[in-house]
């Protein structure tokens, strides 16, 4: 009986140790599970925050795209363009400058301060090549310049002629015949007095 008791008493401590170990292992496993669960919850929270931030950002980009699309969709005719209306000047009196060369005739009309009102030339009216230097081309150029200047109310003109082309006289006559009074005609052709040696005369 004594031996059986000792056996029983000897077997009890081993059982207790195994129970303690198993309980410790269970606690450790529970702690590991809790730590893992906490990490998972943190990850889920961070993911949800990121998705919320992305969702907040996405509508802004969509709004920008929608704005761009709306601007593109609106036709240009509907968009009101603000333009400053410039009142036309009234210039009753001015200067007409006729530059006549062998190849072309240019007519420029300005106000008394020298600000250009209109201009024209034989080349701009449609003449090409040798026809630009003809008297008829000069008359057409003068008429074109005067018609443009009449929009500003031009009535009187001082004419300044420059050059020795064939269209100088016909240009002056055209200015006078188109309803503009010629007050004076002045020749402003530059004449050398001294200066460099001129070119040799052509032998034809």
Tell me about this structure.
The chain has helices at residues 2-73, 135-150, 168-177, and strands at residues 93-100, 105-111, 116-121, 156-162, 181-187. The longest helix has 72 residues, at 2-73. The radius of gyration is 51 Å and the shape is rod-shaped. Helix 2 (135-150) runs parallel beside helix 3 (168-177). Strands 3-2-1-4-5 form a 5-stranded mixed sheet, covered by helices on one side. The protein is α/β, with parallel strands linked by helices and 204 residues long. Among the domains are: 13-56; 93-187, 2-Layer Sandwich (Nucleotidyltransferase, domain 5), CATH 3.30.420.
Radius of gyration: 51 Å
Give the strand content. Answer: 15-25%
CATH class annotation of the domain at 93-187: Alpha Beta
| Spatial ordering of strands, largest sheet | 3-2-1-4-5
Query: CATH superfamily of the domain at 93-187, called what?
Result: Ribosomal protein S11/S14
What summary fits the major beta sheet? 5 strands, mixed
- Total of DSSP H or I helical runs spanning 4+ residues: 3
Please state the average pLDDT score.
79
Low confidence ranges: 1-11
**Helical content, roughly?**
40-55%
Outline type: rod-shaped
N-to-C span: 163 Å
Order of helices and strands: HEEEHEHE
How many beta-strand runs?
5
CATH 2nd-level architecture of the domain at 93-187? 2-Layer Sandwich
Instruction: Kindly report the CATH topology of the domain at 93-187.
Output: Nucleotidyltransferase, domain 5
Question: Which class of secondary structure composition applies to the elements?
Answer: alpha/beta
